[in-house]
# Entry
Amino acid sequence: MSGSIYMSANGALAYEKRLQLLSNNLANVNSVGFKKDGSRFLAFDLAALTTGNKRPVNWDRSQAPEYWMEYSTYTDFSAGEIKKTDSPFDLAISGTGFFCIQTPEGILYTRRGDFTVDADEMLVTQEGFPVLGQSGEIQIKVAKPDDDKREFSVSEDGYITVAGSQVDRLRIIDSDQSHALEKAGHNYYRALKPYALRDLDEDLKVSQGFLELSNVDTVRMMTEMIEVLRGYESYQKMMRSIDDMNARLINDVGRAA
# Structure
């Protein structure tokens, strides 16, 4: 494969990966607490790199030694819109922070606060995973079994009160470093750097009866998708033009011989 076609193919592949991210963002525009993903691309002219320069990862595996492109993704943790639901078990965090959830894979973290109560009267996620407080799993029980009035409330600083009695405080964590969390599916995150996580005790604001929506801007995503599709088509046309030019060159050389 010629270097020109390889460079065009690399560009088309970059746009294809970007399109996949945009499509996933749009698919989750109505997902509670979803955080959109972005992409980064870094192009290298390997022929210009000297021994002392930092070379890209796996650069020697390139099929075209003169060119290489690295691709990476990142998560935009900016806050989404807060929507009022009036459900007492819907909780939203204002500012930074993540709810702690006990799952079969260990503790995962989320901004998705559409909680509920299971048959064992535990505060759980929609999948049935227990929401964690400072003392562990959060039990939602009234003092008297025959009292149907639970009076479940959560203060802005995360303290949980049931029927007038304080039972626990939500465990909410934050990170001191970037890239400390990675997506684990269904709007959960796992810790890449557990040492960078800390319990958030101050500057904490929890809103009961509210949910944080996705931070995806639909109009912007659609605009970017149109831009990406046009860019992808441009690289396709470039590859076809180079291929046609090479074919004509081979045919002309063959006739001249």
In short: The chain has two helices and 19 strands. The mean pLDDT is 82. Residues 29 and 216 are 6 Å apart (CA to CA). Residues 82-212 form one domain.
